[in-house]
UniProtKB/TrEMBL annotation:
This is Copper-exporting P-type ATPase A. It is a multi-pass membrane protein. PROSITE patterns: ATPASE_E1_E2. Belongs to the cation transport ATPase (P-type) (TC 3.A.3) family. Type IB subfamily.
């Protein structure tokens, strides 16, 4: 199947694409600079000879009537021709090739206008030299090509810079890996030859070349490049590792689960590059304008050239037409949107968030309503044991110690919360290595202790079914999430739990309100358990919502404006897909979640308002670029068509316009990171990130029923 040839508006865009796609970028860049440098050298010589010829218009005419002056005049004209021809070859060649390819594809490009003006200047000047009479404009054609080439070279460098962070990310992966065969022999092979299921050895100080599961060894791993978290993570057997992350101190064996091209880093790079290929609304508008702009400018150039030729002569007509086609080159218009969007996508990738496309970024900039999922988004999704009430007849320390002994026999989140709570109380730990703990699925845990007989830890229903009586002082709040511990046919204590609000949640909400967003909290929990959390962070709430209920509510809100839905991406797929912009929190290695338009690699909720701010700044930059491009072309064409703009200045203005658009767009590369929570909190004393006590936040009691 034939792949259609890519189309470009000019040779500059073609060279930009070559720089971005070439595997030998440094060689191409050096070659381009050499051609440009030689062209500048020859152009300077042309300008010197031309300045000597211009002296006739400054000094008295009788100074040039002697034979030597006439000979030098003729010599300088021929010298201008000789030194101008290499410039036409070095810089005009790529333009001519671009025009020929465009003609074969039946397209009009800006190169056609530039080439027509330059060829007209050269042909008219050549005839003047051969006839030894008339003005010559070699310096005009040469300077035009130099300025155009410089502007497009800077454009290419600017676009290349927007992809430099992605290239650096991809280059982090080692070229070779240590593969371990079935007999334990280790051999170095290229990374691209690694297959899923093979075993690799990764030494301390090396980056993981692929995604894998640790089969042997322990290590501290720096995952900041993938997750954005600066805290190092302890990794051991059966735990996942991601490509690009750094093994700090362990000799590991890993089983490959995603090989080269399918692992995390490659998917991140592919995702951002794919996002660049999708055109947004502003870019499509600019493309449609440029499509009719080129033939319109050609007509204006011919009419203006003919008119000025009638008024001031053929020479002025040629200069006027050339000025119009040069000043009207719509490169700035064509770069206005993609340069800003490309730079913003690269900056977002550095910040640990990924946009599906520039279209998603434009939508996020227009969002006025944001909805948050509760569990796993505003909260960590992990229960926190907030208190322990002991029966009047029981010893609290003893109750805590026995509950901890049982909890250590389970990996359930409530059990781990009890273990964490006991560590916070600094009690002495019992040895559970010889204790056989029985698990009652969905109910609780039990074991036999010599001094106490049968002890149990579980839900209210579990202890009631076992016949344990509940003292009145412990039977106070049946709606809260609770776990009971008891023995001797009596409940001896009850643990109360609350959800952990993310440390940055209140500050993220504060920043969202600062952006003027209308905020909502959706949850499947009972309404009376969700409202206190919403009041804590200052967000209107809705409870008892199934996934389809969230989607319906979002559809209603969309009638009032663009809506973003922020969720953990696991059970919020319908809501993320329904919203104008779905934002998945904590994507980690799974950056390819289909439902979300924006993926955050971390669980830092403050990345959402940061993303909104970046998107809005990007749209502002795009509008500034478009305004400048339209204003520049409108004013420039007016000046050129009336004969008030020399072609050299027109070419310089065109190059300057492109440079301004590129430099304005590159400002997005320095968009500031959000402050740390501690720093931001110290500056906003009115914002307090706190944990609600049990009586204020009533999380799901159903979790207690699922205690293993």
């Amino acid at each position: 199947m034939d792949v259609p040839e890519a189309s470009y508006c000019c040779s500059g865009c073609r060279s930009v694409a070559g720089v971005l796609e070439s595997e030998q970028e440094e060689g191409d860049a050096a070659n381009g600079l050499l051609r440009l440098g030689l062209a500048i050298f020859f152009t300077m010589n042309v300008m010197v000879f031309t300045m000597a010829l211009w002296s006739q218009d400054i000094y008295p005419a009788d100074s040039f009537t002697n034979p030597l002056a006439e000979t030098l005049r003729s010599l300088f004209r021929w010298a201008s021709l000789v030194f101008a021809l290499p410039v036409l070859y070095l810089l005009g060649g790529p333009i001519a090739r671009g025009v020929w390819q465009a003609i074969r594809s039946r397209r009009l490009t800006t190169d056609l206008m530039i080439l027509a003006g330059v060829v007209a200047a050269y042909c008219y000047s050549l005839v003047s030299v051969l006839r030894d009479e008339g003005h010559i404009y070699f310096e005009v054609g040469a300077m035009v090509m130099v300025f155009v080439s410089i502007g497009r070279w800077l454009e290419a460098k600017g676009k290349h810079r927007t992809g430099a962070s992605l290239d650096a990310l991809a280059n982090l992966l080692p070229a070779t890996v240590r593969r371990v065969d079935d007999h334990g022999h280790i051999s170095e092979v290229p990374r691209e030859k690694v297959r899923t299921g093979e075993i690799l050895r990764v030494l301390p100080g090396e980056r993981f070349p692929v995604d894998g599961i640790i089969t042997q060894g322990r290590a501290t791993v720096d995952e900041q490049i993938v997750t954005g978290e600066s805290v190092q993570v302890e990794k051991s057997a059966c735990m996942n590792v991601y490509s690009g992350t750094l093994n700090l101190d362990g000799d590991l064996r890993i089983e490959v689960i995603a090989a080269d091209g399918k692992e995390t880093i490659s998917r991140i790079v592919d995702m951002v590059r794919a996002a660049r290929s999708v055109k947004g609304r502003h870019e499509k508008i600019a493309d449609r304008i440029a499509a009719v702009f080129i033939p319109l400018v050609c007509v204006i150039a011919m009419v203006a050239g003919w008119r000025q030729g009638q008024i001031a002569g053929l020479d002025q007509g040629i200069l006027t037409a050339l000025s119009v086609v040069l000043i009207a080159c719509p490169c700035a218009l064509g770069m206005a949107t993609p340069m800003a969007v490309w730079t913003a996508l690269g900056r977002a990738a550095q910040g640990g968030l990924f946009f599906r496309s520039g279209v998603v970024m434009e939508r996020l900039a227009g969002v006025r309503i944001a909805c948050f999922d509760k569990t796993g988004t505003l909260t960590t999704g992990k229960p926190l044991a907030s208190e322990l009430h002991a029966a009047l007849s029981a010893d609290r320390e003893q109750v805590l110690e026995i509950a901890t002994l049982l909890a250590k026999g389970s990996i359930h989140s409530l059990s781990q919360a009890i273990v964490d709570y006991s560590h916070g109380q600094s009690i002495s730990e019992s040895d559970s290595s010889n204790t056989e703990i029985e698990t009652w699925p969905g109910q609780g845990l039990s074991c036999d202790l010599p001094e106490f007989g049968r002890v149990v830890l579980g839900s209210r229903r579990f202890v009631e079914e076992l016949g344990l009586s509940l003292p009145p002082e412990l039977d106070q709040d049946s709606s809260a999430q609770q776990v009971f511990v008891g023995w001797d046919d009596c409940v001896q204590g009850v643990f109360g739990f609350c959800e952990q609000l993310r440390p940055e949640a209140a500050l993220a909400i504060y920043e969202c309100k600062g952006l003027g967003l209308e905020l909502h909290l959706f949850s499947g929990d009972e309404g009376d358990r969700v409202v206190p959390l919403g009041e804590q962070v200052g967000v209107s709430t809705k409870g008892n919502m199934l996934p389809e209920d969230k989607a319906i509510s979002l559809s209603t809100l969309k009638k009032r404006g663009l809506v973003a839905m922020v969720g953990d991406g696991l059970n919020d797929a319908p809501a993320l897909a329904t919203a104008d912009v779905g934002v998945a929190l904590g994507c980690g290695a799974d950056v390819s979640r289909d439902a979300a338009g924006v993926c955050l690699l971390t669980d830092d909720l403050r990345r959402f308002p940061w993303a909104v701010g970046l998107a809005r700044q990007t749209v502002r930059i795009v509008k500034q670029n478009l305004f400048w491009a339209f204003a520049y072309n409108s004013i420039g064409i007016g000046l050129a068509a009336t004969g008030r703009l020399n072609p050299i200045w027109a070419a310089l203005a065109m190059a300057t316009s492109s440079i301004l658009v590129v430099s304005n767009s590159l400002r997005l590369a320095h968009y500031s990171e959000p402050q740390s929570v501690d720093t931001a909190m110290s500056e906003r004393n009115s914002v307090a990130v706190t944990q609600r006590p049990r009586e204020s936040v009533n999380p799901q009691p159903e979790l207690a029923e699922a205690l293993l």
